[in-house]
UniProtKB/TrEMBL annotation:
Pfam families: Rrf2. InterPro entries: TR_Rrf2-type_CS (IPR030489), Tscrpt_reg_Rrf2 (IPR000944), WH-like_DNA-bd_sf (IPR036388), WH_DNA-bd_sf (IPR036390). It comes from the Bacteria. It comes from Niabella drilacis (strain DSM 25811 / CCM 8410 / CCUG 62505 / LMG 26954 / E90). This is Transcriptional regulator, BadM/Rrf2 family. PROSITE patterns: HTH_RRF2_1, HTH_RRF2_2. Coiled coil: none annotated. GO terms for cellular component: cytosol. One of its GO terms (molecular function) is DNA-binding transcription factor activity.
Length: 144
């Protein structure tokens, strides 16, 4: 459903939210290990997310990535739109460019409902809400 880049971006943002809520910062090596991703790949992703204003970064010995308090209210949909665009929320389930209400593909109307449910779920899923579940080991971001 998501590109690999988007999957890593979502996992990294949730991990950063969990690790930096006390004001600390987290480095690329720790993020990559925490979400089971290649360091160079996550570094590129976070650089782009930083440019787009989703995550903050600071250079230097006490530097790293972090989220400001307001960023905890960001939704997973925000991340998806920045990384993968809005095709997941608007596109045809079969990938047809000419699919529309007046010219529907075979799954258009059923997929439209599913697409809307996915969009609503991602818009309602805020970064900050995952922290406690991770702390209680009810959810995970990395294979044990």
């Amino acid at each position: 459903m998501f590109s690999k880049t988007c999957e890593y971006a979502i996992r990294a943002m949730i991990y950063i939210a969990q690790q930096t809520r006390n004001g600390s910062r987290v480095g690329i090596r720790q993020i990559a290990a925490g979400i089971d991703s290649p360091e160079h790949f996550i570094a590129k992703i976070l650089q782009e997310l930083s440019r787009k204003g989703l995550v903050e970064s600071m250079k230097g010995p006490t530097g790293g990535f972090y989220l400001e308090e307001a960023s905890l209210n960001r939704s997973l949909a925000d991340i998806v739109k920045i990384v993968d665009g809005d095709q997941l929320f608007l596109g045809c389930g079969l990938g047809l460019k000419q699919c529309s209400e007046t010219n529907p593909c075979p799954i258009h109307f059923k997929f439209k409902k599913v697409r809307k449910e996915i969009q609503t779920m991602l818009e309602n899923a805020k970064l900050g809400e995952f922290i406690e579940k991770l702390d209680r080991n009810e959810t995970f971001l990395r294979r044990g």
